[in-house]
Amino acid sequence: MMIITMGTLIELFSYDFFMHAFWASLFAAISCGIVGTYIVSRRIVFVSGGITHASFGGIGIGYFLGWNPLVGAAIFAVLSGLGIQLFTQKAKVREDSSIAIWWSLGMAIGIIFIYLTPGYAPNLMSYLFGSVLTVSVTELWLMGALSLALILFFILFYRLILYVAFDEEFAKTTGLPVNLINYLLISLIAITIVLNIRVVGIILILSLLTLPQATANLFTRDFKRMMPLSVLFAFIGSFVGLLFSFYVDIPSGASIIFTLVLLFGLMKLAFFIRQNIITRD
After folding, report:
1. H or E stretch including 22?
2. In the predicted model, is pLDDT for residue 121 greater than 50?
3. From its phi and psi, is residue 3 left (phi > 0), alpha (psi between -120 and 50) or beta?
4. What residue spans define the domains of the chain?
5. Which of 10, 16, 70, 249 has its CA 20 to 30 A from that of 98?
6. Is 123 helix (H, G, I), strand (E, B) or coil?
7. Please, is 57 exposed, middle or buried when counting C-beta atoms within 10 Å of its C-beta (0-12, 13-18, 19+)?
8. CATH architecture type of domain 6-273
């Protein structure tokens, strides 16, 4: 195994594939840090999990029709997110049941259409487990545009989002467009999930939306401060995990999530030592 030195690190940045991976890690940290904070604060982690796995149906349809699989995944993810909302609010289906329906439907459709795709069955490993080193330039532009859009959206509508996230009933009584905001946010969550699938994969993307927030939550419970901290921890975990995967030659998605778990564990241990040992002395 190679030893990481400043010289070898600088040399890595001379390679296009590593620069692409670096920018993908940065944009993933921004988008997942912001959206993940809303998801965790709103306690809709399992809704996001349902959208994530439902997007597999769009990947299968994309392969079958000869589209870019991420296009199919984006359409299916947004429709699944809106479907979960509609089933819960209009059809009065329990939220967990609604999630299970769309989760199962998406996975089933994905498997069926991949099986029906003529020729050799496509390699789905990069979509299931992530491959940040293979992110294309087009995907980087889309991830960058999404990050910018999320920053602007949360700045412009911060108070409205805050009301909807923490006191939806009060927001409704004041005449705020709660349903519209909910549909917009669930669509942004779906798009964020899809565009970051190539970084850590369908199986692990939920961790990128929750682990940095769990670490940030050790330092603050304030929504406004939690977002930039989540972005910071997501980037540290993504970049260190990227380096670790490159030098040890293991899948990047798993390496990034392992690093985020390790980062959370170290921070939690540091807080435990500080509260239970140092303060007693």
Report:
1. helix 16-42
2. yes
3. beta
4. 6-273
5. 70
6. coil
7. buried
8. Orthogonal Bundle (1.10)
Contact between 200 and 208 (Cβ < 8 Å): yes
Which of 186-195, 212-221, 266-275 is predicted with the least confidence, judged by mean pLDDT? 266-275
Could you identify the residue written with the tokens 């390790």?
Answer: 262
Residue 218 burial (CB count, 10 A) = 14
- The tokens for 18 are 């590593």
- What token pair was written down for 120? 């050799």
Tokens representing 36? 């993940």
Tens digits of residue pLDDT in 68-81: 888 889 999 999 98
DSSP 142-192: HHHHHHHHHHHHHHHTHHHHHHHHH-HHHHHHTT--HHHHHHHHHHHHHHH
| pLDDT, average across residues 216-237 | 92
User: H-helix or E-strand containing 48?
Assistant: helix 45-65
**Residue 73 identity:** A
Long-range contacts of residues 171-180, Cβ cutoff 8 Å, at least 24 apart: 179/89
User: What would the pLDDT profile of 94-103 be if each residue is shown by its tens digit?
Assistant: 878 888 888 8
SS3 280: coil
pLDDT at 1: 44
Which tokens hold the place of 33? Answer: 């840090």
Give one DSSP letter per residue of 197-262, joined into a string: HHHH-TTTHHHHTTHHHHHHTTT---HHHHHHHHHHHHHHHHHHHHHHHHHHT--HHHHHHHHHHH
